[in-house]
Amino acid sequence: MNMLRAGKISKTLKSNLPDGFRGVFKISVVGSTGSGKTAFMKKVLGNLFEAQSDVNRRSSTENQIDSTHTWFRVGKKKSDTQSTTTLSINSAGILLVKTLFNSIEFHATSAVDEILQRDDIDEIYKLNFFDNAGQERFDFMPEITMRGSDAVIIIVDGTNMSSVGKINYFLELVNIEENRKESKIPIIVLLNKADLMDHGCYIGLNNIKHILGFQADFHETSMITGKGVDDSIRSLVSHLHERSKT
């Protein structure tokens, strides 16, 4: 993601200070490989995911001392050889707009001036999404990208018990970050691939709740049919609205 661009957007919003601007939020999207994380990003952001230059599968490097928000250009400079790990993530910086008619819109950050001129805006959120690779060899990545998160979306393959089993791992990472920040982080769990329910291989929300034995903001979703996606986004907005008051 273009960090400088994100910074400029934030300053523009703060300088204009619209009544509905709720703040800048980091959203971590985690889950096992094949659970539907990237499909979720595409489903939610639509053409923004394809068109925005700061939304792509990219390589970054973890700084050996402070990997929280340190990004190096991959190249032949001496500083590049000092990093220890190569990371692969999807990142997306967008504006989420809630209108007075209760509709949800996503806009490229470049549209900020146009949005501020509208008279039907209720709330504006600057969201920075981070979706890291789910393969086992990248299991260390969620711990890195989780830092500084304002909300976490856990996406689970509802046809795969191994994917379900990793929920506890992600919850542990959230708990670590909550202790570090000394504040609660909203968690939304998406039980994905609900379109396979009729095929008899979908575990189902009630079964998941029984297996896991904890209360969370659960949603059954399908990135193919769109089932539950809108509800999950509205739930995210509700969580962020409450967080913006603190």
Keywords for this entry:
9 helices; 8-stranded mixed β-sheet; about 35% helix; Rossmann fold; disordered N terminus; about 250 residues
What does this structure look like?
- The two termini are 27 Å apart.
- This protein has 246 residues and is an alpha/beta fold.
- The relative contact order is 0.18.
- The protein contains nine helices and eight strands.
- It is globular and about 50 Å long.
- The model is unreliable at 1-8 and 51-87 (pLDDT under 50).
- β7 (187-192), α8 (205-212) and β8 (217-220) form a beta-alpha-beta unit.
- The protein has a single domain (3-57, 84-243), classed as P-loop containing nucleotide triphosphate hydrolases (Rossmann fold), CATH 3.40.50.300.
Number-wise, the strands total: 8
Number of domains: 1
The low-confidence parts are 1-8, 51-87
Mean pLDDT over the full residue set = 76
Inertia-based shape: globular
In terms of topology, how is this protein built?
Layout: H1 3-16, E1 21-30, H2 37-45, H3 47-51, E2 57-62, E3 85-99, E4 104-108, H4 112-116, E5 121-132, H5 141-145, E6 151-157, H6 161-165, H7 167-181, E7 187-192, H8 205-212, E8 217-220, H9 229-243
